[in-house]
Structures
1.
Amino acid sequence: MALFNRTKREINAKIVYFGPSFAGKTTSLQFIHRKLKPDHRGAIKTMGGQKDRMLFFDFMPPELGEVNGFRVRFHLYTVQGEVTSPSTWKTVLKGADGVVFVADASGERVSAAGENLQRLREYLQSYGQEFQDVPIVLQCSKSDLPGALTPEEMAKHLDAAGMAAVRASAKTGEGVLQALSSVVKQVLKRLREQEPEEETLDGQEDAGTVAPSVSLDQTEEQEGAVPAVSADTLASPVAGAIAAPVGTVGEPDLAIAGPAEMTPDGRCCVPLAIRCGERERRYVLTVFLTAEDHHDN
Ligand SMILES: Nc1nc2c(ncn2[C@@H]2O[C@H](COP(=O)(O)OP(=O)(O)OP(=O)(O)O)[C@@H](O)[C@H]2O)c(=O)[nH]1
Ligand SMILES: [Mg+2]
């Protein structure tokens, strides 16, 4: 669910790049990052353990326009490397406003796409969301390889007839911005359908705002450029939530809401409660603990 920051008049929307391992998620995000002007995006950041690291950055190109007086900042997320714990993907998918399902269309790995799509369905259902509730785009990656299935064949194979499907190659960049653009448009459309009650509180009605065309293709390529770290860049989903409490006033209070728990893979999970005015939200702060010195005696 998008987070409204009324002070900055920004909406923070989250798009998750989900899919089987080795399908091209990281390569896609890196390509997108290179294509965006440094002024319009934050640095690529990573967080987490050695195996399943979260990779994310945010962007806000002005051509996206506004949603009823709010600018929209998109946060793109994926999980990198071998994902050992389903909770990693579930955590990243929590509150997703849109998903780009990156599937390897090159043949051998098509069955992995089916299994992962089913997993995506289950994870979303665990948050009470069905496929039809969430904008999802099927990015048919590795289409540059011989024998790759077409988007139509992939959609049929995955039984995903209603999903927008894009022929893509993360390696060449073909279709990557198109897939992003497609999900961004769907998210903006939904935000416009949901949002009015937030903005009318400030008396800034702008019901006539026209859906802007998403023109990511017009951004400049900045190969090798040092990314500008936007002061607005949110460091994590939790930091984002703290920075952007929904429709609240005053400073948020943060409290530890229960005992910390250790997981078998070395994570320490600390329940937190963040209160702002009348509203309270619960989060789990997950940290990886690494012993520097280990003595049995
Ligand atoms: N030919 C071709 N190779 C690709 C494409 N996308 C990714 N690759 C290659 O496939 C390998 C895996 O790509 P990644 O982007 O790391 O895949 P990923 O989905 O992030 O993988 P995990 O992080 O392990 O889940 C790399 O060697 C990429 O260069 C593509 O569209 N075409
Ligand atoms: Mg990756």
2.
Amino acid sequence: MAFKIEPIHYSVGGTSIVLQPFDVPGSRLVDGAVFPLALELTKTSPGPLTPDEAALALRDISERGITTELLNKHGAILIRGVGNPSAKTFSKLVKASEEGRGRKPYEQLGFSGSRTEVDDEVFSASEAPQHVRIGQHNENAIHTRFPSNIHFYCVKAATKGGESPLCHIGELFDRVQAEMPQFVEDLAKKGLLTTDNYQAPGKESKQFPTSWAGTSAFGQDIRPGDDIETMKAKAEKQVKQLTPYFKWLEDDLLQTQEHVPGLRRSPATNRPLWFNSVASRYRFAKDIGAGNPPYVGADGQSYPPSNYRYRDGTQIPIEWLARLVDITDDIVFNFTMSPGDLVLVNNFLVSHGREPWYEGERRILVSMWDTDNPEERIRDY
Ligand SMILES: [Fe+2]
């Protein structure tokens, strides 16, 4: 499929820079726009484009409203052509781009994975083991709070596997509506109940080495030397920002329950969106061998159908989840990032995932941003 998009020319600080659209294999056409939009940054004057020059360019197009317009239209933008792949380069580029359009860093809360801050507003992507697939999800859509944007950057690419697939959740909504209208109707009516279990510090699982005391979960105020009761009291204060429904179980395991809608609308176009994580939850169970009765995985854990619930406590039929996973696989843009690739993602239009990798080292970084402007927040369905 070929898409015709005009190059963007401009001059910053005496340097002429061109944002040249290019075709990426596997890109899709959604709502009349190419998804994702791919832009090569080049300089018309001699010498390579430096991260500082690229940052000036990205800040400029953000200040002029172009970044927001493109993210609302295309869902995701791949930017290629900036040298020196590093966390520092990513930090420079992403801050220029997001600060330029008035966005603020997203304050992480309730994150059940594991991440490390490696530079200013830059974190490691999920630290889950490399053989684990992370299915399609909108960042923190299982929670009542989530970022408007999650951006990705590649420092090192695996030599086998390790793709970073993206899915347009407008296209996904349309497909589910066409094939399983009852699923859409039930989800619209009932919403979702998400249950999360957070291990106590020191009792983290090998698969997802994280606890409720992590600084991106509920440990923001916990200080060295706090005893367990103080830690729990501090964590509870954070939990209450997400949900009033939580309890402490045996071994100081924290269980939270949240009510989330599952369907939303784009703030830019009002188009309906499939904004949730039910596909990735079922995908995880399926990958571990627990997709069918008796729903026990290779890890010996049980992944019963009752894990997938509507807000009223009733179950989502397993066959609908299986079909949802197939539809998602059918429409994803499956992409292997190269070192230096920057992918700006509108979390309100596009979900993301991660494929397992088998050879080489993969180092992908993320940066999450948010907006206070109610006009830019995702809408109710
Ligand atoms: Fe994610």
3.
Amino acid sequence: MTKPSALSYRPVAIILHWLVALFVISTVPAGIIMLEEGLARSVQDRLFIFHKNIGVVIFLLVIARIVFRAFNPPPPLPSSIPVLQRHVASATHIGLYGLLLIMTISGYVYVIAGGFPIEGLDAIGVPHLVPEDEGLSKSALSIHLAARFVLIALVFAHVGAALYHWLIRRDGVFERMAPMLRRSSQR
Ligand code: HEM
Ligand code: HEM
């Protein structure tokens, strides 16, 4: 019998995954609602502050995840998973990492180049990494707005696939990221 630890992601990877998932799933609606017309100014300000600062936290967590992954590769997938599906899964995961970096960096550049604050970074005195430049700010915004559709589509595909494995295939793939839900027959 294989030990569950050999079948699952490591605890650090699992904690980073679920933190990023929680923050992404909350920052997307915040990003959309904060731009709604007729929203009370105080609510809008709070959503902007939440969206920008959680975005910076997502960036740091994604970098930590990528570095951790480089030294701790994911556990092998069950042998029942066909080769094509393995390739699609890893392409989706690479796409998710790439888009999270694109979204967070473009958001940062849009805000800093536009001369707006990022409260958390400003409070601890982090210097601005890009100059104020209207053209740069506008280009970064175009990237931010275009990439959001791709990220949202990939997240839907990813969550759909995870739920399919958990509820329909019941092949232990979902439990790699949620080992506490592993059934005794999968250990
Ligand atoms: C994974 C991280 C992020 C995601 C998924 C995300 C997603 C979004 C979404 C969905 C919108 C709404 C666009 C619309 O409906 O028109 C938006 C807008 C915005 N985001 Fe982000 N964002 C992220 C990170 C960031 C970061 C790090 C910053 C800045 C530090 C930022 C700053 C902004 C700003 C200022 C807007 C408003 C744009 C406008 O005025 O049209 N975002 N973002
Ligand atoms: C409720 C929502 C989610 C569920 C149920 C879920 C589930 C899972 C599962 C089961 C895996 C492991 C797949 C495998 O073993 O091959 C995984 C991996 C992954 N998930 Fe999620 N996920 C969710 C949300 C998200 C979100 C919002 C993101 C980022 C936008 C994300 C990014 C990733 C990445 C990048 C991996 C690959 C991990 C690696 O190998 O480094 N997930 N997810």
